[in-house]
Amino acid sequence: MIVQPVTTPWDDGTINLLEPNVPHGNRVYLQLDARTSGTPGPYPYTDTKKSLVFDIPLAGVLNAGDTIVAADLVLRRNWPNEPPLNHDQRLSVRPVLTPDPSDTSMTWCYPWVECGAYNADDVGDVYNIHVIPAGTPDPIDDWYEISVLPLVTPGAASLKLKLEPHCTPNPAGNCYTYTEWISSEYVDFAWRPFLRLQFQPGPTPTPTHTPTSTPTLLATATATATGAATATLTPTPTWTPGGATRTPTPTRTATATPVPGLVISEVGANMVNEDWNGDGLVDERDRFVEVCNWTGSRVDFGDDYWLTYQGARSDLFNGDIRAGECAVFWYDLSGRDFRPATTGGVYKLWHRTQGQLDAFTAVTSAQDRCYARYPDGSTTWVQQRCTPGESNGYWLTHPTPTPRP
Hints:
1% of the residues lie in helices and 35% in strands. It has one helix and 25 strands. The protein has two domains: 199 residues, no CATH class; 182 residues, Immunoglobulin-like, CATH 2.60.40. The C terminus is likely disordered.
């Protein structure tokens, strides 16, 4: 059994309803504030004024095969600076789903879908409620251990969580609780917070092929597009994994209902016989999501876009993508946290300031079949033979493709 502390540097900070556009991440103290006076927060969080957000790096700490026995966030109260705690303060522990909550930029309203980080795309369900009891802290023991066990995933790049305070009103309908904590920026390292992990190490990971994390842009077609995203596609064949002869799919009427914008176009998560990423192996890394540009103009990714699967995100996109072209993003290869499962799930496309751009919910798919918009650029989703990097109607025009060299 290994017991290992994970210490700073990491991102942590207060998000403050009373200063909704002011970052508080670089301050030496963290503040939790729940009360019934003043302007209420969104229902049902009517008593929360200040919450805490943590983004703790785990890369190189845990392997995917490790078994986590215990995980505790350990925080120290800065209690001499607090008023007396007259009511219990209940802390809801929730996973943060929004990528990169940087302590230099996050506020009550940024980068969240809903101010205060309450939306289901911002945070997951409450895992644990930790109670800070009323009264004065023990001056001999002013460290607090908050369990975050189910939020730690072996092999994940980081642990992102939110501490959301609440208090129970008294018979007069009032309550007030304010606590102050030492942050990762505090001058004395011995007082800074840390994550204590207890785990059973698993087998040593087998080295695997690791290409660059930069997404490979693959042109699906030559397109003529307008601002209304009406596209004329001319499929261009590339290669066929396995070299098998394909039976043509019955012809469909390709009358598209255009979907203007950068959208998710195809999802493949149950690959059994096809080496789609071309690394010589048929494994989970052949799972993919295809994103297509139907905006009518070139899109510069500029590290402002990303994908999520069940809230776990891909790397930030870089490079650019022309109108009528698509980019393919791969399981694990396009981000250590981006790992679509065969059981289905929710895929979402995000922009740093615009928020969610597109979403698709998949259920368990047949082997070597993908969910795809058909016709290209439409609102209709079908299950069909996979076409990463090609028009979604590729097999209609190439029933017997040329094997890949």
